[in-house]
Amino acid sequence: MSQTRTRATFPPPVMEARRWLEGVDFTQDRPLINVSQAAPVDPPPLALRQAMAEFAVSEDSAHLYGPVLGNPELRAELAQQIGTHYGADLSQVQVAITSGCNQAFAATISAVTDEGDEVILPTPWYFNHKMWLDMAGVRSIALQTGDDLLPDPEAARALITDKTRAIALVTPNNPGGVEYPAELVRAFYDLAQEAGIRLLVDETYRDFDSRSGPPHDLFQQPGWDETLVHLYSFSKSYRLTGHRVGAIATSPNLLAEIEKFLDTVAICPGQMGQFAALWGMQNLSQWVAGERDEILDRRAAIQDMLPDLAEKGWKLLGLGAYFAYFEHPFDLPSDELAKRMVAETGILLLPGTMFMPQDDPAGKRQVRIAFANLDRKGLRQLFDRLTDATF
């Protein structure tokens, strides 16, 4: 059987993990605690769903094609809100809407790379970024991080070759949860600008950042759009995961190249999701602020509960947004541990091996917990089970 682009990469990790549930019975006394996927399990707030229903019934445009780069009203609103959030001036022509943030990444990579080119990814990496690079014939160059999970710009500098086309960062990080300091993000921007490559900054979880004010000053730099490609998602902030709405902010020239990819793959983003994103930005700022407060409270709860787990040898490496990233204490690899935990503890989480190169032993000692769907009671149950676990 010949090697193909899809055979060059691994199966979707979340779907693989779900298969571990087959044949396992969970009791009422010990139901499954699923911390494998970073997606809200609740639907959008009722007011948004009602607005979407009215839009679907009353507007013929809800069911038709739209502009490839997204509806002008949504692009303009997002440009204005990015500008407000980051203290900068953006134009609608610097913003495009995509069918989810994964598509935003895929479209950008297709526009800035050729087969055999290289993109630098800090590890642990977001597995869908690695998967797309594999399928695009682009080499993923692993930038190892230390126990703080923060990438080093000077270490990245040493990895740049004449094939390097981009560095891709995720902050707040998936899977690590860490929030990259503003000066660190700026250092990577300066490095990318100096090297003549693109800096991709995926801020899918920016609305759950614990810091107030702009998380970095990249949008304030002259000619920022010639270096920065900013990626964003509406999925988490407005619970629109099933509607697939993401966004890109960068130069109009690069968006013209990205448009070719988008037109070929999806023609245009869905009208229902775009309407929901626009309505949400215009009407749900206070609701989103409440969602952020709830996530930050759950993050604080993890800090409160951490000492009991630490006594059992667990080490917290990163915490933020939707994620807690741990080094586990057991004498078995994390991929084996994660499978056994389903039946033996009733917990479904993802092993660090899904976020690391195969030859990096650190992944065998790490696990990711996506905690956003657990309240304090649920987190207490999770930590009690982890504390009691023996392997």
Overview of the molecule:
The chain has two domains: 13-43 and 287-388, Aspartate Aminotransferase, domain 1; 64-283, Aspartate Aminotransferase, domain 2. 40% of the residues lie in helices and 15% in strands. The chain contains twelve helices and 13 strands. The chain has a seven-stranded mixed beta sheet, with helices on both faces. A four-stranded antiparallel beta sheet has the order 9-10-13-12. The longest helix has 27 residues, at 285-311. It is globular and about 55 Å long. The model has no long low-confidence stretch (mean pLDDT 95).
Characteristic key phrases:
globular; alpha/beta; Aspartate Aminotransferase, domain 1; Aspartate Aminotransferase, domain 2; 391 residues
DSSP strand (E) fraction?
A: 15-25%
CATH topology of the largest domain: Aspartate Aminotransferase, domain 2
- Determine Rg (CA atoms, Å): 21 Å
How much helicity do the residues have? 25-40%
Pick out the low-confidence regions. none
Overall number of strands: 13
CATH domain class of the largest domain: Alpha Beta
- Sheet bearing the most strands, described? 7 strands, mixed
Q: With helices defined by DSSP (H or I, 4 residues minimum), what is the helix count? A: 12
Terminal CA distance reads 39 Å
Q: What gross morphology would you assign?
A: globular
| Secondary-structure class | alpha/beta
> What average pLDDT do the residues reach?
95
State the strand order across the main sheet: 2-8-7-6-5-3-4
Give the CATH H-level superfamily of the largest domain.
Type I PLP-dependent aspartate aminotransferase-like (Major domain)
